[in-house]
Amino acid sequence: MPTPHPPRPPYAPPGGDHGESDESLAARLRGRPEGEAADSVALLTARHWQSMYDYATVCLASSGRLAAMVAAAALHRVLNRVTAGEPAAALRPELLVAVRDTVRAWAEDDRITNALPGLQKPAGGRGMRAATTMTPENRQLAQRAFRSLPGPARCLLWHVEVEAEPISVPAGLLGMDVDIASGTLEQARDRFRQACVHAHQELAPSPDCRFYNRLLDVPIRRGGALLPDVREHLAECRHCRDAADQLGHFESGLGTLIAEAVLGWGARRYLDSRPGRTSSGHGGRAARRGRRRGGHGGRGRHGLLSRIPVPSRLHSLSLPDPVRSTRTLLTGLGAVSAGVLVSVLIAGPSSPGGEGADPTGASSSTGGGGVVPSVSPPGVAGLPTAAGQVRLRNVGSGLCLDTRGEPRDGSGLRLADCSSGWSQQWTFEDDGLLRSVADPGLCLDSHKDAGVVVLGTCAEEGDGRGDDVRYDLTPLGELLPRWDPQMALTPAGLDANADIVVKVRDRTTGQRWVTDPVGESATGSLSDSGPTTRAARHASLTEPLP
């Protein structure tokens, strides 16, 4: 039976102007006689009562006197804690959780249920009494992450994402300028996501789950595809499957994720009762916000992923209803995850006479020179006797290794159309360093970001990070990180903009690299552009371009 909803309140928080925050009102309750604090209680009640009453009708599956009693009792409990010193920056979710817990506590007391028969409805108190937990298992990470956020971040996320209210509402509750609140909201979204990723790793039941941590987050965030190894792992691991589902809600449905994580019981019905969600304006705002943050247009999570076929074994997965988006995720994430994202560059230009230089043989992971075969296998990266500037071209895709944005510590790596840009120029040194010509202080680091290949500070051998930025080259042109020679630098996909990852070595063409002189491409010559100012500063550290 549909839950009746009382009249909807206006958006603007009544009681006090926007300079009077919930916390400032709560401060008046502390250390003052009850009579003198009555005005603060009245103002806080005016701001939050209607939402509390709405959720009480959801939890009880009925409205009226009992819902008002529950809301009043919950308000009393929370304000007692606030008076004792508990912060009041994010009162709304705290009050709603108190409503839920009050209904459950009353329903578990037979004396109260006998006096209040309305608590015995199967869809209300009786059902809550029988439930083992209020928060579903597939929302535990988001619940933990949301609790870890500071009060202002929780307030902004709750009122904008869950209540679907304008930013001016939580700004008023926080006593914050609207422009500042908007910037803080964006930071809160990012911080919430990072906390979810951290919770997934912290609660991981196995080393494999921790290994795949960033391989879930990065492709979902960028609208890319999961590596086949990761999809296989998701088919077997409920913990990571739930994590992928929760991370997927950051692209669409963040309010649903937060409500289900914080409230659990009746979260969807509470969302349906929100005035902002019944108006057409909220959907438009959410869509505009998604375009601003993702910039993918029609290539968002659902649109891009749905074009990738699902392995037959994944079709047989029986997923619970709240994990419907996980199925979409498994359908579409196809190439960026089971090995760690990484880029690897490797070295030496062809000889001036146009003949390819002899390739270097594979070095052992412990060091030593490689054997130079007399005949180059197809698709081998030929290295010069001295470090020279080259592009690294992937054999499987024909695209070159490039950085994402300006080369700096922490910049990611990707595949891109080959060009003479400085961000595509590398040197492969005798000690295995793959060094950026654009900034010779930076090298390819396959271990810095949990497997995501990024630029990192070049490290000396033996300092603990030496093997993270050093690679051995096999006769087939594979780049093997010295921290694990069973892995190889691999593009997550064969299309432009694909991340570079560390993946289990499989000897396919996608894991093979060849070097191109900077003045040429695989399909013809390229006109060299003059060195940028930044590159010019390092000209003395590298050889001149061929």
TrEMBL record:
SMART domains: RICIN. Residues 387-516 form the Ricin B lectin domain. SUPFAM superfamilies: Ricin B-like lectins. Residues 1-13 have a biased composition (Pro residues). Residues 285-304 have a biased composition (Basic residues). Residues 522-532 have a biased composition (Polar residues). Residues 1-24, 273-307, 350-383, 514-546 are annotated as: Disordered. Residues 372-382 have a biased composition (Low complexity). Pfam families: Ricin_B_lectin. This is Ricin-type beta-trefoil lectin domain protein. The lineage of its organism: Bacteria, Bacillati, Actinomycetota, Actinomycetes, Kitasatosporales.
